[in-house]
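protien #1 (seq + structre)
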Amino acid sequence: MSYVNQPVKKKDAEALVTGQPVYTDDLAPKDCLIVKVLRSPHAHAMIEEIRTEAAKKVPGIACILTYEDVPQERFTFAGQTYPELSPYDRLILDRHIRFVGDAVAIVAGETEKAVDKAMKIIKVRYELLEPVLDFHKAKDNPVLLHPEENWESKVPVGADNKRNLCASKVETLGDVDAVLKECKYVVEKTYHTKANQQAMMETFRAYTYLDYFGRLNVVASTQVPFHIRRILGRALGIGASNVRVIKPRIGGGFGAKQTSVAEVYPALVTLKTKRPAKMIFSRYESQICSSPRHEMEVSVRLGADEQGILKAIDIYTLSNTGAYGEHGPTTVGLSGHKPLGMYGNTEAYRFAYDVVYTNHMSAGAYRGYGATQGIFAVESAVDELAEQMNMDPVRFREINMSKEGGKFIGYDGSPWVTSCTLDQCMEKAKAMMGWDEKYPRRDMGNGKVRGVGVALAMQGSAIAGVDVGGATIKLGEDGSYTLSLGATDMGTGCDTILAQMAADVLETELENIVVFGVDTDISPYDSGSYASATTYVTGMAVSDACGQLREKIKGLGAEMLELAAKDVDFDGKRVYALDGEREVSLQDIAVRGTCGNNESLHVTVNRSSKISPPPFMVGMAEVEVDKETGSVELLDYVAVVDCGTPINPNLARVQTEGGLAQGIGMALYEDIQYNEKGQLRNNSFMQYKIPSRTDIRKIRVDFAPSYEKSHPFGAKSIGEIVINTPCPAIANAVYHAVGVRVQEMPIKPEKIAMALAENAKC
């Protein structure tokens, strides 16, 4: 039986729906010290004095740590391949406080009650500094967030701490200004996306302990176990070899857990006290001091000729990294490279960006990773350009979209479009939505108008030339296989998907593949689950490892049959002579592997890729707008995805549906707000609205598979691209309905109502 491209049930499906899985907190020892962090009430300050004497006397308090008790070597929380592009700008605790919620002291005790009491007794005197809260004014501001001399950027990304710059760059192809000057149609607009919270069910958490050898063991809900190992080794000054990281089941991540948000605090407590310790973020902490999406302002200039050919694209992105630089230099690149890659006719482009420090919560990785912001801007501007030309926006995209075999423009993951069915995606989406009948609008006659909108998207499949996937496959003496992975299943089902690939290569039943989760001491190295890498890069490693193990099984079977390896074959159950005379079962080979055998029946493989073949997608939205109130109701959302071969169509579908739901939340509901002192107003789900099932209504998903030849099963990624179309598609639908162009997410009713009122005056 073939399992690839089949909708098989997730390996952990029954356990999940029956409440059986165990997560980080379920595994923590009962005698763990409870760790919490005292956080700053000020956006920008220096600690003048911190008094902990009284707090230390609270019964049950094990230790209280301040900036005087931590190593002074700067590091980054960003879970990235070394050398990280993110600057080394953090200390575990620092005198210099940079946002409301920044860490001031670490408190550990026997009970949560004792810790809470002690935190209230700690006295801190601050010297208040002027905060930088407007990211438009951050660059070259006289107020510096990181004036320290030991600030370091290991990679030349245009960073300059003396200018509040985390990264800066200009990329060009051709003379953009000259080409734009020749274009008959030009659009120049600026679009703004606020920060967004990942809002995963399981908040940040970790517990730590010393093993019998005195090594630091960390059990954490993380997407990047091997990076956490390196980060902690540096931050604590003990080296990565003295750190072991174990990943249990994860209750969601969406990129937030690509940043080491929680792990360092219990780890330091364990080193200081020699006792197990755990830290569990409250929802409040997850809202005010986590790693949300980067706020970005993207300015776009587009130019097209009389035939509707897109000739030039000019993009400038201003990104707000917040107080620290985690993922700042890397997310911003996707805001230009992904939308540029969607259009193949472009003759000239310019992509420039500045990533700036401000006294807001530090930003990080979130599904889409910068592409979401850039695609919202470019796909909105494309619609405005089509409007200017009096052309159907679908037609404009059909004329200009990238096609298989063409050359990529401005995409840093591959020079050529190796696999692409965008044209088929568009054709299917049009039919599903009934675009020709519904475009541009339908007046319902009751004060409500319906409109439709469209958007393209692309992402990537791992970071080209950087990400590494690892897999170990081992034949057990009972004829079963153990697949050990360094990749992290965070609810995505990658354990199942990779097992499907293994089962097909080894020609065995899926149930015969036992998947082992991540333990940095014994798992093969893997960059982690981010950048849409797992199915593509780790899938290559799994396929290659299983292929090599097949050959080893054939070789040992041939030896047992006293034949040459070329004279036998393996069908998953037996090694048999090609002449049909003799055979030996897999069970017998497995047993032989444990006795008098010189050939190990296990294989470890690491794989990387020089290219990152992107998935593509078309999204279409139908909305109904109330002209009196400005309220927007999403009636229907259609998505058609080219992810290469969908290894598991069921899992691909739910990935798409989940990503669309998050994108819809970004478009219509999620609105991070700060007050004039830099304090976040949205510190709970009472103030930060995420969409519920009743908000989402109708989502329809289909696929237009291509075949990506660089992958053994023709697969590409799907995890990130699916969040990228809702913002522009919904914004474009709103415009087609009532003529209001919303250039800032989220789309609030008051924005539409006020714009309609203003239009009525004109």
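ok now protien #2
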Amino acid sequence: MRTHKLASLALAVSAAFSTSILAQEAETIQKKETALEQITVTAQKRTQSIQEVPISVATLSGEKFESLFSGGEDILALAVRVPGLYAESSNGRVAPRFYIRGLGNTDFDLAASQPVSIIMDEVVMENVVLKSFPLFDVQQVEVLRGPQGTLFGRNTTAGIIKFDTVKPTQDLEGYAKAGFGSYGTMNFEGAVGGGLTDELSARLSVLSQERDDYIDNAATGQKDALGGFDEKAYRLQLLWEPSDDFSALLNVHGRELEGTASIFRGNVFNKGENGLNASYDRDTVSYDSDLLGTGADNNPQEYDGFGTSLKLEYDMDDVTFTSISAIETADGYSLGDVDGDSIASQNFVTQDKLNDLEQYTQEFRLSSNTTDAMNWQVGAFYYDASFNVTSVDGFFGATTVFHDNKTWALFGQTSYQVNEKLNITGGLRYTHDDKSLIVGEQNVDGFAVLIGFAGVQEYDDIHVDDGQMSYELSANYRVTDDMSVFARYANGFRAQTIQGRDVAFEGSPSVAEAETINSFEVGVKSDLLDDTLRLNAAAFYYTVDDMQFSAIGGGNNFTALVNADKGEAYGFEVDAQWLATDELTFTAGYSYNHTEIKDDTLTVAPCGTSADAGFTGYCTVLDPRADGFSASIDGNPFPQAPESIFNFTARYTVPMGDDGEFFIFTDWAFQGETNLFLYEAVEFTTDDNFEGGLRIGYENFEHNYTVALFGRNITDEDNVKGAIDFANLTGIVNEPRILGVEVKYSFY
């Protein structure tokens, strides 16, 4: 298989160049630099060297991060840019779905929970819409692989992606960056900060991204009908430091998004074949829906959000008290011509509205602040969120469901330096989670009600709650000054989930019980060759009991939450960076994930299968079908879990006198075999997907400016990222090639 060839290639390249991508960290290499930059992380809510943390952690910052987003990309650009990390969405630039080590959730519902938690400036973004807040003026991204239930709570069974933005200082500093590219793509980003008084400093950051519509609608003859977006975001931070012992950081941020939701492309697979067929055209779709009554809908999308947080820190000699209070809000909608074509018999068009999302979180922490052998921290956490979702269908009408979720937790962690080589860490967390769903108005203005096909149903309110303990134990042993090994056992859980979207189509809500993960990993971290080579690796094994899945599709297109008896996975990651010379830097990384569903009784209805109609579906199912219709998924890989990921970067510079340098930077990412759904089918398996980026430019050190030509997806690959399996062979593909120019000026 080509996947194994890629794996062999990845390991050969890694060995030949002694590279991997630990951390996919800052690749900005200062002139005449002779050692790699030391990286600090806050993976354990303390500032520590990444080489001392007994967790598999990768980071992104600097040029690598800037390059990924130069073409106006959203948060999905992080997919496969770190070993073990994947992301996709069927909701455009909102509601991304993340996967770490193969563990994630394919549910497209706006109330869906995910086992990968997004933390922005120390605030959890629980709802899928909040997870999509634009990335700008970012100091560092940390990817914590494996369960993080002790310090970060439930719904972190796969891991965490942690974003830290640049904070205010007393020094006047800032930057402005503008980029212009294909399809009218424009990207502006800037920040300015400094001291307002001796005690008060501020930083204002802004982002503006837009792209013109470039996809034609063949059904209506409309040119440039969809594919564009216009997004604005801002962040204002105020830091008050009246004394050496106390600080208060206020963060106020918001966004506005208007554009096109996901582009569903109907009939782009041939039954019995793998890969896009001849009818696929990146620049053309055929949509005939008019759900809004204003003409062809063309998949519009609008969202806005606002949030604020306040972090207080008080240093009480040997103990530091921390309080983080935060409020996040969001509203908006996405409309999708889900079948992706203009065939009247397959006209599935829906609109989901998120209304009145309010999330409140409060965390208190006490942590030791000494140089003693033992360090500790204890804390309490509270979470309260509510929102409603209105699903609008042209036949059934509009139906609203109300969601509410409350969580509280107590946690503690301690680390003990046994001797100069051995450090042991242990932690506990008790979490209680409470969820409810109430069905509101049903089938409003629905044609189905008028003809007697549907009616208002009686649904009992649903209330579920659960309390569980999470725990971890790890050890880090420093073999030499430049190498350490670690071992970690971690337990965590993802809270119970309620799915109520099918109420809009007279389907009953479904509930998935909490899942529990037990994870084991061992690893090595090293700085070699006089600190010019950083090479880290980790191997893992985990099991998930009562694993939550979303069974989507079948003839009625119902979404049902189910629990598999068990899920099992094992694999490894290799991360490294090599400063080959003062002018040449390589990074690379590789991950392998084997995932397997273990439940010999669990079946799903694949690709539009309807036993009532005697129809076996639109695709070529590879799983056993004992009754001729339902597919047994026992032994299948997790959905959207790439078996392998390989990424590679290289940066070469040519000094231009004492004032600047010419540079070439390239980044590549490869994705191995990936099964899109719970069942296996010929049409819905991808392999050997890859994308590359390129930056060529000049950086002036004396005047602090950079001018560069850039390209994203420079080979213009057409990669399948997702599919719709209930109406026809509909696919979702990646972003097109974007070529452009970027200018950046910084001041200090």
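The two ends are 52 Å apart (CA to CA).
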